[in-house]
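Follow-up to my post from last week.
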Amino acid sequence: MPSGVGKEAVNNAGTSGSSPSFKPYRHLKTLEGHAAAISCVKFSNDGNLLASASVDKTMILWSGTSYSLIHRYEGHGSGVSDLAWSSDSHYTCSASDDCTLRIWDARAPYECLKVLRGHTNFVFCVNFNPPSNLIVSGSFDETIRIWEVKTGRCVRVIKAHSMPLTSVHFNRDGSLIVSGSHDGSCKIWDAKEGTCLKTLIDDKSPAVSFAKFSPNGKFILVATLDSTLKLSNYATGKFIKVYTGHTNKVFCITSAFSVTNGKYIVSGSEDNSVYLWDLQHKTILQRLQGHTDAVISVSCHPLHNEIASSANHLDKTIRIWKQDA
Amino acid sequence: MNAPIIDPLQGDFPEVIEEYLEHGVIKCVAFNHRGSLLAAGCADGSCVIWDFETRGIAKELRDNDCAAAITSVSWSKYGHRLLVSAADKSLTLWDVSTGEKIARTTLQQTPLHARLNPGLTSPSLCLACPLSSAPMIVDFEIGCTTLLPVYVPEMMPDVLLAPQQRSKCSESGPPFSPAAACFNKCGDLVYVGNAKGEILIVDYKSVKVLALVPVSGGSAVKNIVFSRNGKYLLTNSHDRIIRIYENLLPAKDVLRSLEDLGKNVDGGVDGVEKLKAVGSKCLTLFREFQDLVTKMHWKAPCFSGDGEWVVGGSACKGEHKIYIWDRAGHLVKILEGPKEALIDLAWHPVHPVIVSVSLTGLVYIWAKDYTENWSAFAPDFKELEENEEYVEREDEFDLMPETGKVKVSSVNEDEEVDIETVEKDAFSDSDMSVEELRYLPAEPIPDTNEEQDELKLIEARISASPASEEAGQNGHVADHTPSPLGEMGETRGKRKRKPSEKAMELQAEKAKSSKASGRTVREKSRAVGDQEIVDSVNGDDEDDVDAYY
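User reply:
Got it. Predicted complex:
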């Protein structure tokens, strides 16, 4: 198996060039089950499960190996915008337009364990911290809230931005939170104290639609609604890589790091395809086509070379893509 | 990892009480290796472990056999085991992750102080310092206790002396006061401080005194503590002086070095003199701390996590004062808490946080007073320590700068980026084969139906209250100083899961500014003089609201 695009001189010419050692992804399966647009799809940390959240107010749990439907979670009063897995893959947390978050058990009997109330507007994004004793959520009420998993108590409220938040993520040791918002700024917060440590971007536009830390917590991947993905070394504050070619002007599309076989950046796009870039060379390695509407969310399997992608209203499916061996 | 962006200009010791924890009447506390968990022993014989990140209770260890007050708690090196000593003369060894008792033994006397061997990964060997007898090594596996020598009798020509397993009779010598003892960093030596004012270095396996260091002043040693890195030793003596010694012995293979030292001492020197000679090569006096003005006794002195600071609590009744010195000997801070005597103290291994236990059984958490760094709000601001002369470019003020000049991007976009490798943790010791128990898994406690309804009711009521937005308060205005808004300082108080409705109403009324959502303002309490900590009933809506822009 190739070790991915490495240090050898690769042809950088053209946006759709692919290096000879890159094995393309092929469509493996299409999962149907949601009645409306799917806002988020995520593999669990152990790779055994896949969860998807939708505007149809439900969340579906799929097997991460056979991709069969395991359970449909119902209970939210409005559409679900985001979901997150706990580190031990036992719990998921969903963020919904009914202003609450719900913690669900990913094991039988698949109960809703807790409802986290406190936000005053749509909850848009959610994530667990690595020890999974805290949950961070970002909302349209412009605040970040940190919740204690065990009791559901809201530990902290941070008045973070001046417009709805689009994305929140903990870093590797749970000491920092990165947040992105429609107000165009991307900020880093101290998770313990709730103080702002750094502002990465501060332009009024374009809106920051997605932000997350790299696996080692040193870099931040930021997506902005001008069809650009940037990788920033947040300690220096400089943007060291820029990935373009896709279309992202309206939706908060999630992107992911693919590290199982070669380092790629994976993102959905409003032109109905999934884009894969080479991390170092920034070239587009592949465009996965098949969805019939904008691809809103992507997730990379933690162990296998598989990608799950989900799309908007006209499509309503999840597609699984697998890399050739 | 955060070092580049956290402000390095702030001092590294706590300043104010951040909050307090409560669970029955706490008697003693101990942090685990990383400071992610805080274990505390209560007066009713149970132990509680807090998840220090969430400040919520992670586990409770309750032994039905033991109802006496806990006198000390001690973690094993990797956090898997907890040793608890209680007033009913028992020592109990717990497995932290399962919450099960591993072993229990009863001594002749109440151990004031018990420490697990820090060198072993799953220790069943511990050091116990009882109230009025020599410190002893207790081995749970074999089930035997070994008394350690506390004195080196002057008469003995030979170095070797091994008191037999005596029961209660004390050695001939001065009237007995409790001796203090501690393991060294790797756990193969025990340092004993006795009532004569001497530090004995004992090899507990052979029950042999290997060296002797007399403490100047000759007054009884009450506490003896090593710093985390094993380089410094602290003694607290009856003459109200805290002394810092530098440990000259190497970190590894200590027994051999001591043997070599013993051999290298001049021939003709024997017995006690030889021990003293060896001792002088093991420890040298570095600093002395005392309060010359009040001449107070110290309680629970210890080092900070990095060994840079020394902290001691004042043992005066009715006073909750914590003194912080830097290692060079300067008193840098005196923290004053509420008027309750201090009974235990612990410094967080990693962060500048101190935890102090008061006589009333509350655990106060002291932390730095965080103010926001204004340069955090704009991406390209850089904070300078002092004024820098600005040197302008050659053509900067030209009317018509060269158009052909392209600003060279200082960023090399082709550079390889590594998103996966993680730096080795500064706190992990070389032995990574054992996995450390850092956190106890947080299992969400399922909501009950009645709680849900009650919460909904409360929310409805709060949203109905009038929205008052006073200008200049901690509202949407860019005033981000979380200063106490006039009222008595409230700390995040008891963790009640079900707030009473009346309390929530009180909260809504008390709030200085609240939006229609009913977010209430929390004020940080400053421990200035005798400020009382008002007990605030806490509900799910008690938040920390800070405005950041």
